[in-house]
Design goal:
With about 260 residues, the chain is mainly beta. It has a single domain, classed as Kelch-type beta propeller (Neuraminidase, 6 Propeller), CATH 2.120.10.80. Helix content is about 0%, strand content about 50%. A hairpin with a 5-residue loop joins strand 1 and strand 2. The N and C termini lie far apart (about 40 Å).
């Protein structure tokens, strides 16, 4: 994993960036995605066709990005009426994209769904614990999906805490692994440390963490305010697969943090 780089989409302006969650530094790329259909809540890398997919939360709009040229392709709106979307994952064995949907209300019904890119339809795959789900990722080592769910909508100081879940497609079982000490936790980008993941936390301050699904350990990393990647829209790619030119020095600045949307 040491040759991977972490990339994400800034919440406030839709810029695709390379960033370091351990140092809080960010390297802009030439790619800026349109915010016509809302902010982005999903980013996944298709390892077979070497392309990125990005998904907006409210508008449910899907885009592909060529990581070599930076070309953006508008793939259209997904048919997910009345649902909130969070996270985006690519499963190499099926060649499919997956996301999570959550209904309305304080404790909505959530599920994992598979995206049919050609028809823009979604197919339910598995029900999740009631609440808001998101930050889906395919964990290659365990051949399962990992994600986050929080039982209720609320502010960053809400006593309702986020839990990590695992969905095993082999037996179609969903299990809760552990609960994190925060309400708002978003994003699951593979860490340089194998088996661990980077996430973003909105608490009294805004920062990144490294999460270990094996034992529930959560290590606080750098402040995120100068980076701006403050949603589920983050992932990691092999350095050789990402050819967009970027400046040699990190950009400094500030960005609006992502707060969980209330119903």
């Amino acid at each position: 994993m040491s040759n991977d780089i972490v990339i994400g989409i800034t919440f406030s302006d839709g810029e695709l960036v390379v960033f370091d969650p351990t140092a809080g530094t960010v390297f802009p790329t030439p790619v800026s995605l349109p915010l016509d259909h809302g902010e982005f809540r999903g980013l996944a890398f298709d390892t077979q066709h070497h392309k990125l997919y990005a998904l907006t939360q409210v508008g449910h709009w899907l885009y592909s990005i060529n990581p070599a040229s930076g070309q953006i392709t508008d793939l259209g709106q997904l048919s997910v009426p009345g649902a909130d979307i969070g996270g985006l994952a690519y499963q190499p064995s099926s060649g499919s994209l997956f996301t999570t949907t959550s209904g309305s209300g304080m404790t909505p019904t959530s599920r994992i769904v598979r995206i049919n890119i050609a028809t823009k339809q979604v197919v339910p795959v598995a029900p999740l614990p009631d609440g808001y789900a998101g930050s889906l990722v395919w964990d290659a080592a365990s051949q399962t999906f990992l994600g986050y769910t929080v039982p209720q909508s609320g502010s960053s100081t809400s006593p309702a805490l986020t839990s990590m879940f695992r969905y095993d497609p082999a037996n179609q079982q969903v299990s809760i692994l552990f609960t994190l000490p925060y309400h708002t936790v978003m994003g699951l980008a593979p860490s340089k440390n194998a088996g661990r993941y980077y996430s973003w936390v909105n608490a009294a301050t805004h920062f990144y963490v490294e999460v270990d699904p094996a034992n529930g350990n959560v290590v606080q990393l750098a402040n995120s305010d100068a980076v701006g990647v403050t949603s589920d829209a983050m992932t990691a790619v092999k350095r050789k697969s990402f050819h967009l030119r970027r400046p040699a020095k990190p950009r400094k600045g500030s960005a609006k943090p992502r707060h969980r949307r209330k119903s």
